[in-house]
Design brief:
It contains 9 helices and 8 strands. It has 203 residues and is of the alpha/beta class. It has 2 domains: 158 residues, 2-enoyl-CoA Hydratase, Chain A, domain 1; 35 residues, no CATH class. A 3-stranded parallel sheet has the order 1-3-6, sandwiched between helices. A 3-stranded mixed sheet has the order 2-4-5. The chain is globular, with a radius of gyration of 18 Å.
Length: 203
């Protein structure tokens, strides 16, 4: 992994993660897709509320990516984080809420009202109170977070230059990005052997 790439990816991760350092609470409202880097943005918010049918996931965990913010483990714990990142699956907002990945999931028609109600409830609390509660909670996570995120940033770069990552890149160049991503996400392509998985149903 080149120094330039490491610095660039690290800078993106720090920009995304600056939101935990913002004194005011940050609520993320997800009404469509929060996938790949979008999931990093959603999970770095203080509170995340999703529409029940919205989707969240980090599909590049299958090949060509590692979530640099490492927020999956901080929100889910190790076992459920592994379940998500070992498969690269997308899940619905309802599944994410039931798993504890996000605060809540509501019908899409109720999403705006749900988020506004939460924001109004917190707005009645003095900002210094909010800032102190947020700092205490974040401090507990940050004891290990920075080292974890540095490692994740290194691994994110390595995934793009591993033999499998290069095979994915070449496949995308040969058949187009959409087809290569479909093969990655459906698990029908063997990125080590660089060919279709035997018996797999092609997308």
């Amino acid at each position: 992994m080149s120094k330039v790439l490491y610095e660039r990816v690290g800078r993106i991760a720090r920009i995304t993660l600056n939101r935990p350092e913002v004194m005011k609470p940050v609520i993320c409202k997800v009404h469509g897709f929060a996938v790949a880097g979008g999931s990093d943005i959603a999970l770095c918010a203080d509170l995340t509320i999703m529409a029940e049918e919205a989707q969240i996931g980090y599909m590049p965990a299958r090949v060509w990516g590692c979530p640099t913010t490492a927020m999956w483990v901080y929100r889910l714990g190790p076992e459920r984080a592994k379940r998500m990142l070992f498969t690269g699956d997308k899940i619905t907002g309802r599944e994410a809420a039931d798993m504890g990945l996000v605060l809540n999931a509501v019908p899409a028609a109720d999403l705006d009202a749900e988020v506004e109600a939460m924001a109004e409830r917190m707005a009645a609390v003095p900002i210094n109170q909010l800032a102190m509660q947020k700092m205490v909670i974040n401090q507990a996570m940050e004891q290990t977070m920075q080292a974890t995120q540095r490692l994740a940033t290194v691994f994110d770069g390595i995934t793009r230059h591993s033999p499998e990552g290069l095979n994915f890149k070449q496949r995308a160049e040969a058949v187009g990005w959409k087809q290569a991503v479909s093969e990655r996400d459906s698990g029908t392509w063997d990125w080590t052997a660089n060919g279709p998985l035997p018996g797999a149903n092609r997308p």
